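Lab meeting minutes (informal)
Scribe: AK
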Amino acid sequence: MDMPTAPLGVDAAGLLAGRLSADDYQRNFADAHPPLTRAQAVIEAERCYYCYDAPCTAACPTGIDVPTFIQRIVQDNLRGAAQTILEANVLGGLCARVCPTEMLCEQACVRSVHEGKPVEIGLLQRHATDAYFANPGAPLFTRAAPTGRRVAVVGAGPAGLSAAHRLAVLGHAVVLYDARPRLGGLNEYGLATYKTTGGFARKEIEWLLSIGGIEVRAGQALGRNFTLQALVESHDAVFLGLGLSGVNALGIAEPALEGVRDAVDFIAELRQAAHPAEVAVGRQVVVIGGGMTAVDAAVQARKLGAREVHIVYRRGPADMGASAYEQHWAQGNGVHIHHWATPRDLLTEDGRLRGVCFTRTRAEGERLGETGETFVLPADMVLKAIGQRCEAECAAPALELRAGRILTDAEGRTSLARVWAGGDCRHGGRDLTVEAVEHGKQAALSIDRALSA
């Protein structure tokens, strides 16, 4: 709608690239959490109690034997530590950087319960895997004898990569399809640049593919270049790791305006840019949503030179998909977080975005109501981060879905014979990278059992 009041004072420059100096970009997009030194790693590892039936291992979706890999760090056996990690989680290097360890293994750490400060498991995991990838030496994995079976894996995100690797190790021939030109899914296109510096995600994928037996077909999408039925007919089994490719709408009028875009596209543009100076950002940015995508988009907008960045979420802080740690991280980077508000109108002036009008919300039992109170945030850029949806219904209509995602059993088997699914497209998950890795691993083991029967 047009501005009902005086101009909001949005920076007239609008969206611009190259707002900062080269030094600023280098500093802002350096590694967010620098790795431990050898001495720091040993000191931290020695805090571990090496618990029997360790709660940290039970809290890890992939079941990494945390006490064992930490003990091997103390013993200066970093290759052995990395092997313990990667045998359970083949993307253990990336997960060490992006996992919400504060909600998983570290929350369960006995030190956390007794002292309020857990062992820094995530940093120790990174220490071990970084050391291995810097000097991998002999392969950790070797392929079993060829089984003569051929499996299609659709989607080269964490779930698909995990499934493809495990299937290849077990001796099956794998054809890995992905709609995008580069493999990695969320790891390549959807994570904040400062979390995966130095091209680590690509290096890890190159290592994963070095097992052999995995044929990559990039730029090939289910429903566009091939059908699920065709895959089932030409392969012995199919694994779907489709992720969440659709983006939810705001639920209000969304005129075509410069600066109004999906947060996932903004993050992907930054990840694929040769340099952050190439990416345009507004001076006053509003991010609508409360998950990790919202936090990553907001913080990166600040690091690109936005003067003000606001996250607006419809419920309270405890309901946000982003952890308390990530919320504090955003606030520590100058992002303002507003709770209990939902967008009502995008405000324009002379055809340009000038702000967003929000309505205050409140909990009414399990439902969300509106108070009638409104407020306006000036904005020349709005990033929509209100959740993504699975598009399996369009790509594979024969699958049974629940709440828009693929329904499976505990092993990932779908309603269709010889078709498994995992990752964010699977109903009942938590949309975590580490959980997607476990879905892929368990589905691969289930496929192997089915093909060996």
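Next up, CB showed the second protein from the same session:
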Amino acid sequence: MEILVCVKRVPDTAENEFQLNSAGNDLDRDDLVYSVNEWDNYAVEEAIQIVDRVGGNVTVVTVGDSESEEVLRREMAMGANTGVLLSDDAFENSDGKGVATILAGEIKKGKYDLILTGAQADAAAGQVGGMLAAMLDLPYASLVNKIEIDGSKLKIGREIEGGNQEMNEIELPCVLSIQTGINEPRYVGIRGIRKVAQVEIPVKDAAALGVDPASVGEAGSKVKRVDYFVPVLGDGAEMLEGSTDEIIAQLIERIKSKGGLA
């Protein structure tokens, strides 16, 4: 099975203290530590596990600048076979549709049975997977937390409202957005990183992808960020103390005082 996984280089929330830039329209990114998007990492692990079971290859692809190559090498050290960097000045400040357009340009030049994205791979908007499927005219499922191979079809589990699980059958080829918790991503050791350190990673621009520069980047974006701010902190939480019965009684009194109970 030929699997392509879309990954992204993002600021590491565990390693950074975030501050706004002087213009107030983005993060101050000068000293940020970056890593692969968490949801994408689960998608890569799932792809590797599928290939371990049925055979095939895993390709990881990202849209970004030269520094984004580091996340491709990390996922290759994890077990992906190849990486592709999609990079062009025209791609900067693309909205979700623009990113999907760039990725679709690459995917159309290959032959993939399965395309995976992280469930929240695009600044937590969750847009790219669905848009990509629409552009490729492929079936799509989001929030996938279980995959079983069944010949030319997949049986997939989806996390839905209320903590419930929904099972579906979907035909290949298809696009799936992967939820965290579907697996446990493997540890990437120094040996694996060294092994792929000198592997050549192809870089493709708009011309190589057949993408019109006017349809992507800032020029093609229909969605633009106009502000970026830190919410004002409210009052802290009140901690109730005592036995379970005492805490329940306190909680009921507070709900009554707010008009929640008659």
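CB comment: The helical segments are 38-54, 69-78, 96-107, 128-136, 190-196, 206-209, 217-220, 244-257.
No objections, moving on.
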